Amino acid sequence: MRYICFVVGLLLSFCLTPVTAHSKQQDVVNYLAELQQQAKQRKLAHERVWHLLLKYDTRLLGGMISEADGMEFFNSPQGKTDPEAELAATLASFFVPAAGVSEGKEHPQCNFPARFKWLNQQLAFDSRLEIQACDRLDRWMRALDPAGVTLVFASYFMNNPASMFGHTLIRIDSRRMGSGNNLMNYGANYAAVPDTENAFLYAVKGLIGSFEGRFKIFPYYTKVQEYNNWESRDLWEYELKFTDDQLNMMLLHLWELGGTYFDYYYFQENCSYHVLSLLEIANPNLRLKDSFFFSVIPADTVKVVMAQEDLVKKVVYRPAVLTLMNEKRLKMVKAEKTILQKLIKGEVSPESTTFGSLSTRSQALVLNAYMDYLQYQSMQEKSDKEIKIPRSVLLARSRLQNTGDENGEITRFSSRPDLGHGTDRFRLGMGHNAHEPFVELAYRPAYHDLMAKDVGYDKNSEIIFMDFNFRYYVESERIRLDRAKILSITSMNPYDPLFPKTSWRLDLEIDTLRDRNCNYCNSVKGTYGRGVSYRPDSLSSLLLFSFVDVKTEFSDHLKQNYRLGGDIEVGTYYDITKNLRIKLAGSYQVFFLGDSKRFFTSQFITRYSVSQDLDLRVELNRYDHNNEGVFSINYFF
Questions:
Q1: CA–CA distance, 116 with 125 (Å, rounded to integer)
Q2: Which of 92, 138, 187, 190 could form a disulfide with 220 if both were Cys (CB 3.0 to 4.6 A apart)?
Q3: Which ranges carry the Lnb N-terminal periplasmic domain (predicted)?
């Protein structure tokens, strides 16, 4: 509106200025009208680039609305929903004289440099439009000195609801720093600005868009410190190929985004979705966001980027501090592991005879692992102080010759996210229970279960969201909802004497009351449990687990409409080959309030992976005295 007033003001000044000044102002007014007419005739407001710049969601039917929620992002009061009004107001804003801009504010040419650049390319502004100096923007661009951009994926972190699916950001690679100093480059990140530390509230608010999401620029090493060191998450870096002009356009748009916010949605408008929009601005021929409708998951966005021809130049693995330590522990024999534990507990020192009895290679291996441990522990304090490694340890290590172990290729404890199966799953099955045969049909939009092939995923955890399973019972000719897993999270933390953590799981679902004959009736069920799990070593194909759970169920088919109790479950996962996995588990369930009951359940599942996105499963289940078997085909996409 203020820019419309500007044009009106120019017209009113016709009577108050000399003829020469009036002619110049009239010429500017005419030129602005000419530009707006050209833009209208060429339908620039309908161009894909304009929609990308203004963040219009073109997936909406019957209208258009920008995903940006801060009104400072628009020049027109109707800009959020009207691209033509926004285009006209934006052009008018570029003609505002520098003296007409409030103190402390940037000129619109400097506030929206990506829009200015694109419109200049389309309309070829001449000298009648005064080009404004943008000192802050120029200094920012010189500091970044962009030579390239890298998409970074931080692996899964189950202790934070915002990071359970991984996280993506970009690194702006500087020409000045060169390829060997990537830590000194800048990163750009879109994330929620939370107002709570409660994990449950965080999840709920993230689902309903109650947080503001903002872009931030930061030194890349700070994120490496946060992810690699504090949270011990491996990083996968995908170096991308863009021209200098494309990089310039992307960074100009990033500058524009710094002044606004978006409603943050955990599964839609999240870190990955908005990072993809930045890449599309750099190269509008990329249609990265078109692949997503309901959910945008970080691992899937990496796959979409990898699928683009000639876009990814190189993939770099940046292991976490604990990964480096565990890689060394994997090489150790039992005696070396024992001495490492005694070093950590302070029971031996590098000067002791016990340590001295080791070979030179073993001493170097143990000391290297010990220094990794000290570095990790120092990082947990989140202190700005230098890492404190005892002088005696540094002296002992300096006296040893380089054994050469450090120069070998490191064992990768996580795998590239772009190699994983699709996060959506469609399931078709057939089976038989104690009464009749049935056909099963299921779909879930996210994400990964422990029976699926774990390449590209955390091998010790599963997250299942909105998994709906329907059955058609052949003899009774009925279609029933067999199970709906609203949210199911399991985090196995295999026992580690140096970093002991309990395993945990959480389930919220609608399920069939399988331990009673009520004609396939349903209940609403909630479960929370703690337990322990064990792997012989980090790469072992065997995983043992046990859980103690608290359970509650609600159904009008239960006495008093509910039951409250718990269970004890033990089980194992075992990989017979890289494509063949089995699960064997049994539990004893006790409900002591409401509809009281005690019974056993047991389960056997085997999975064979035909490919990364297709597997076959056979399940045999027993619930009290009711048995059932299911054969299913699972397709991931």
A1: 10
A2: 187
A3: 138-307
In this structure, are residues 111 and 134 in contact, taking their beta carbons and an 8 Å threshold? no
Token code pair at residue 230: 């504090």
User: 468: which residues sit within 8 A by CB, 6+ positions away?
Assistant: 442, 443, 444, 481, 483, 484
Burial 201-228 (b: 16+ CB within 10 A, else e): ebeebbeebbbbbbbebeebbebbbebb
Q: Residue 218 pairs with which residues in a beta bridge? A: 187
Residue (of 358, 311, 368, 315) closest to 338 by Cα position: 358
Cβ neighbour number for residue 569 with a 10 Å cutoff: 19
3-class DSSP state for residue 545? strand
Q: Give CA separation, 327 vs 321, 368, 537, 575, 631, in Å.
A: 10, 11, 11, 21, 39
Burial of 165 (0-12, 13-18, 19+ CB in 10 A): buried
Give yes or no for a contact between 533 and 460, defined as CB atoms under 8 angstroms apart.
yes
What single letter denotes the amino acid at residue 136? R
pLDDT tens string 462-520: 999 999 999 999 999 999 999 999 999 999 999 998 989 999 999 999 999 999 888 89
Report field, pTM of the whole predicted structure over 0.85? yes
Cα–Cα distance for residue pair 544/135, rounded to 1 Å = 61
Cis-peptide into 447, omega within 30 deg: yes
Alpha-carbon distance 193 to 263, whole Å?
10
d(CA 317, CA 329): 19
pLDDT, one tens digit per residue, over 552-564 is: 999 999 999 999 9
Report d(CA 92, CA 114) in Å as an integer. Answer: 16
